[in-house]
Every structure is written in C-alpha cells, then in structure tokens.
Design goal:
The chain is α/β, with parallel strands linked by helices. 37% of the residues lie in helices and 29% in strands. It has a six-stranded mixed beta sheet, with helices on both faces. A four-stranded antiparallel beta sheet has the order 2-1-4-5. Strands 7-8 form a two-stranded antiparallel ribbon. Strand 1 and strand 2 form a beta hairpin.
C-alpha cells in the first residue's frame, strides 16, 4: 500500500530525511521510534502533504500513485489520515460542526452525496460512544479547553468516522496518562483491519504494549538504522537509543 524509497526531505534548505526507505502493506501496523530530531514528525508531515517540506530525492507511492503529486485534500479523500501530536484549537467552531464539514468534504471529493445533519449525528454518536467522547464535548469549540486525553480521543473519533486506508499517528501517546492511553489504544485497535495500514510514531515503548505492531523501525538522523519486532521496543526501553545511533553519520 505504502512504498517509500530513498526519501530525502528538506525544510528551509536543511535536509531532515536522508534516504529513508519503508514499505507497509495493507493490514499491517508499523511503528517508528527514535530520539528527538530524528525526523519522525517530518515523515508524518510529508505523507500528509504539509507545506514547507520539500522532497529533494526519492519517491512515495501510495496505492500505485505518486503521493507527492496529490494535494493534501486529495490525499485525505483517498484515505490518508494524520492524527497530530498537537491537535489544533479552533475557537468559534463546534466539534460537531467541524466533523460534519470535514466528513462531507471528503465524501464530495470521492463523488459521494453529503450526509444531512441527522445522518451525521447518528454516525458520530455511534462512533463517539466507544471512545467516551461525550455530547458535551461535541458541542464545545473544537479542542478549546480540552485536556490532552480529550484531544487525542477526538482525533481517534475522526479516524473512526473517516475510515482511512492509511492512518498515521504522530506521537498519539504524548501527554496521556495511563487511563487515557489505554482508551485511545483500544480505539485504534478496533480500527485495525485487512484493508487498512497504520504507521504509529512514538518515543516510548509503553504505547506498543497496547498497540502491538507488526514491525518496528528506529529512525535516527533522517534514516532507518534498525528494524525488528516487539522485542526491539523492549531493548530500546532498557538501553535507550545511543547504542544504535552513535555511529550514524
């Protein structure tokens, strides 16, 4: 589904990713780990199409298409979803209004008819219940005054509504206590399936206790320096990153 080859990415002329190669098949969950400044968030942003990130070499193929040639909204319509580390607050726009607008925007991009307010409400309520997203949260301005756990649960609610084919979770565990982490992870796990791929980006092994990946990759100084299964995350928890990254030029 996702095939990244020799990817080089620069921001303001500074190279961040330096030859990253990664392949994820449908039905798989891969995790990216690495120290601060290794390029983890840059990878998520370039996949989502954020402005200011320039591909200087290499390719990203998604379902047989050149992902870099697609506008961000076209990527979203084709099933690419990014759950951000720091969800944006939008004062004056209720959460329900945002969800209705975003959902119907995606449907229009795919040539599907809009859902009316009643249809959206039924769909949102059904998905929100499993994530403990309350009616009160849906009526509030988007992310304004929300706790870290509420913001992350809302991100996963969006993922459940949009049903992406490729979900990218950028440090979803950041700022969560253990109860919120477990709830968010349960929401993610319910969305695992044979037609959906997930890329989970995290600093810490604890998230991978709940979202068990098929493969783990360690990113350092812009490229992957180690790969393995669940045991690799346990090794990193015990020993840190230094022994893997010290020889990376």
């Amino acid at each position: 589904m996702l095939d990244i080859r020799n990817l080089h990415v620069a921001v303001d002329g500074k190279e961040i990713l330096r030859g990253l190669t990664l392949r994820i098949e449908a039905g798989q969950v891969h995790a990216i780990m690495g120290p601060n400044g290794s390029g983890k968030s840059t990878l998520s942003y370039i996949l989502a199409g954020r402005a200011g990130y320039e591909i200087t070499e290499g390719s990203i193929t998604y379902d047989g298409e050149d992902l870099a040639a697609l506008a961000p909204e076209a990527r979203a319509a084709k099933g690419v979803f990014l759950a951000m580390q720091y969800p944006v607050e939008i004062p004056g726009v209720t959460t329900m209004t945002f969800l209705k607008t975003a959902l119907n925007s995606q449907r229009r991009q795919r040539g599907e008819p809009d859902l009316d307010a009643v249809g959206v409400l039924k769909l949102v309520r059904a998905k929100a219940k499993m994530l403990n997203v309350t009616e009160e949260m849906l009526k509030r301005a988007l992310n304004v005054g929300f706790s870290g756990g509420e913001k992350k649960r809302l991100e996963i609610l969006q993922m459940a509504l949009f049903e992406p084919r490729l979900a990218i979770l950028d440090e979803t565990d950041s700022g969560l206590d253990i109860d919120a982490l477990r709830l968010v992870a349960e929401g993610v796990n319910t969305l695992r399936g044979p037609s959906r791929a997930m890329l989970v980006i995290t600093h810490y092994q604890r998230l991978l206790d709940y979202i068990v990946p098929d493969r783990i990759h360690v990113l350092a100084r812009g490229r992957i320096v180690a790969e393995g299964g669940k045991e690799l995350a346990l090794e990193l928890e015990a020993r840190g990153y230094d022994h893997l990254v010290k020889d990376v030029a």
